[in-house]
Amino acid sequence: MSAETTAATDPWEVGERERRRDPLRRMIGLxxxxxxxxxxxxxxxxxxxxxxxxxxGVAAWMLATAANHxxxxxxxVAVVATRALGVSKGVxxxxxxxxxxxxxxxxxxxxxxxxxxxLARTExxxxxxxxxxxxxxxxxxxxxxxxxxxxxxxxxxxxxxxGATVLVxxxxxxxxxxxxAAGLLLAGLAVPLAAAAxxxxxxxxxARARGGLSxxxxxxxxxxxxxxxxxxxxxxxxxxxxxxxxxxxxxxRDAATLGLSAGANALITGLTVxxxxxxxxxxxxxxxxGPTALAVLVLTTLAAFEIVAPLPAVAARLGSIxxxxxxxxxxxxxxxxxxxxxxxxxxxxxxxxxxxxxxGLRVRYGPGEPWALDGVDLEIPAGATVAVVGPSGAGxxxxxxxxxxxxxxxxxxxxxxxxxxxxxxxxxxxxxxSGVPQDPHVFASTLRENLRLARPEAGDDELWAALRGAxxxxxxEAMPKGLDTQVGSHGTGxxxxxxxxxxxxxxxxxxxxxxxxxxxxxxLDPDTRDAVVADLxxxxxxxxxxxxxxxxxxxxxxxxxxxxxxxxxxxxxxxxELLARAxxxxxxxxx
Amino acid sequence: MKPLDPRLVRTAGAVRTHLAVTVVxxxxxxxxxxxxxxxxxxxITGVWAGEGMDALGWMIAAVAAVAIVRALLSYxxxxxxxxxxxxxxxxxxxxxxxxxxxxxxxxxxxxGDRENDSPRAGELVTLATRGLDxxxxxxxxxxxxxxxxxxxxxAVLAVVFWADWISGIVILVTLPLIPIFMALIGMHTQQxxxxxxRLLSRLGGHFLDVVEGLPTLAVFRRAKAQAAIIRRVGxxxxxxxxxxxxxxxxxxxxxxxxxxxxxxxxxxxxxxRLLGGHMDYQTALLVLILAPEAYLPLREVGARFHAxxxxxxxxxxxxxxxxxxxxxxxxxxxGEERRxxxxxxxxxxxxxxxxxxxxxGLLYPGREVPALAGLDLTVRSGExxxxxxxxxxxxxxxxxxxxxxxxxxxxxxSVRAPGGRWTPxxxxxxxxxxxxxxxxxxxxxxxxxxxxxxxRLGAPDADMDRVREAxxxxxxxxxxxxxxxxxxxxxxxxxxxxxxxxxxxxxxxRAMCRxxxxxxxxxxxxxLDPENAGAVRTAVARxxxxxxxxxxxxDTGWAESALGANLRTTALPLLTREARR
Lengths: 591, 581
Known about the structure:
Chain A is an alpha/beta fold. Helix content of chain A is 62%, strand content 10%.
């Protein structure tokens, strides 16, 4: 499938107008494939709420009729209806909840797939990589569920049931119906919206005060040793208490505003019932309706406010759901970081030369941003091992991102065996270039599954060979379950060194022509680091290897070292050559 | 979990006020519900009997009055609930903060080791802010409903019994069925739900796992294939969740069914007796209007139970925190708890004298290998002692002993003021001792206040001249002056505006400003690039002039060149298991 056809059929590839639409409506749009199920859910919900209202109305009619002592046949239908309504409310409510939850979970499953596909295409490596942002994005995806179950169905149910009830009462007595319509609109729409609007100011004030308190608390707890050492803990606790007093003051002042909606709802309910009573008595006095109709009018109105009871909670929730939607679509509307490729079917001849040539490479993370790489020239001869070193922020990982086709160059060329890699789709390039990305992820699964990522068809023999290459075979053999050992979330069941070796084994298993190792020894203690680097350089024999690192361990064994700083190559040469010259490399080595 | 935690009532005074307000308003609201029902039944019956607006006018007006009073009560109850919630949260927060910052907290005393953020700190901050916010819902929604659920059903029952005992019996029989059925269903389903919950959390975590691992998947060209797996896991997740929900919703179903069915039974029963002439119209209407009110508070409590329990759980966590062991005996924290006299507020003279370690060891609680063992060492007044040794040899631990963040678990430390005699360290008040100590940790913590306030952390009375002088000595004046607001610039969380080398120099300025006779330095140039390391070395040399110093460093080269004459180097042995054998 070419990139063009993908774009045409991709529902996320949306126009400018769609992007400007309210994120809530776009989120609701995600549920469109399941609209029949949601409609069924709304009908069931309306039946449930309607049963409750109708129960009181029918019962009122039954009593008012019975008061005139007719024959029992006059009541038989009402008796049966009352009993049926008594049962149907609970049953339909139960079914409604099952149907809407099922539909919402189906939708969520689809949304997850689409979010993932979108991320995979646009920016697997960019802005969203920090752990906090990733977990927030996942939470924002789950907010779809919240919207569909608690934000979408209850208002629709209210509209259907409210409309039906108003209609029935209008038949009984027109002003009574209109009065109920006004009451329901006020209590169900005006008050929740006003409360949400009124709550925004206090919400912001409280968020600000809470933020101040959080910062002070973080300072206090994390800076505790410094505070104790400098005798400043008491003063700091006083500052915390000050921030706490500020938050409490704000919250107490705003309590008066936030309580308004509860009072307003009680007032509207009570006065609407009173209005129904007042109008009804006048109408009976004028002979417009009978006493039976009065009983139905008043008791139905009394029961009808159950219809709008869930709405204030919905209004309060929509704000945070909308914020989730905004963030979600903000990520999803991001244009791809890699331009569509122009060619396909890159077959690199196994015998061909896989030399990597980087010429005048310039990259930045956005217009106006500083250059992350600013004219880098570099060459990895086939089968050679080249290291790129430099302080953090030098642009080393950006180089890896370009080689792995996570980013397009803004200038210059990257060639492998004479082929410009930007001509080919990312996945084709990654058959040739692969390795250990920065912070390689270990999935919450078995060792076998984690390894087979790199080559799904690999048999156990190949897995063991890769483990031996990464010097991990001995430790895995010692595990009672061997390859079937569960490694836990983020591989927490393994030590830091074992996680890095697992990532290395994966890279060996993938057997690309060009092996990129991006900070393979980050977060390791010095002894483990030395051992991992040694094994890694052994394993890299036969590959064209790019080793990206910030420390100089093992660099005496590589063919050439490039020192990168502020996006430029400062020095290059063998370890010995670089030590012979004054400069960054030597000064770091000597420390 | 209990619906009302007695510890909450005991600990937070605001809770008692709130309970009193809630009970009073609950009683009043119950009265208003009964009054409204009686008035409605009376007016409707009056109209049926032929009475007109003239006769019924005052009763109709009374319905309006009831509505207005009830609205006012609702408003006041809600506002007062939020008010009390704010006060309760504040009370709990203050207790929590004073507890965890009090002397002798284990986790605080972990010394300068901040390479991994303490997850406990993050947890505590969340608990103290967002976690406790869940109490709002608990106070303003749950507790009032709980009080109503305890009053309204009984009041309604009493009135219905008085009006019509047969209907009273129907309600009396069905009402207790609700909690009984819910408990039965709950007991039956709990085990099953718990088993499914584990499966659910595993499936639910899958999406986060693959999104986090997306770059890894992409490198191995597995991203596209993974989409199909996400779909499959999503379907499994839905199926498992629906299995759980079918059962979980049963208790709500039982509640709803019983409540509505009971009202229907009452309605039919009074209707038939009204038809037979065994009951009057007004009583029948009163019973019909009141019957749903008996069940309503129970439903509301049920509906709010889960949301409100978050608040109870947060309060519970606070109490667990407050009950946590006060340190671990004498191992951690200040000796003043046991032997030292009260602090005097002046620097201990001993800080400018000699310090002697005799067979000193420290075993962290729960560890097998001591962090320090059998150390014999004397630090003489005015000398610069450079401690080297591999990581794990206890260098940083030794500094935390000198800072009195921890107490040795074996051996003893003695101090001697110039011209005085040896006294055990723990007879010197820890606060006074620390007044004579300046500390530059490996990862100094900078606070989200101005640069000036960061520098005078240990000397709050220092004026700007002294702050600036300290910064100049620490090679920090130039870059601080270049900040947008100079010394008044706020540093942001954890000093985010500054580089590692700049943070180190601010910490050195802090130590200069403290002007203490004893200086403790922990790896001052580790992780710095060559330029910054040079500036830090210059600053360190100035700081140490005329002071006693203990310096911990991985490598020794720079110290020998920078510190010169009165430098003495001691290597600590590695304390691994092999070394102990």
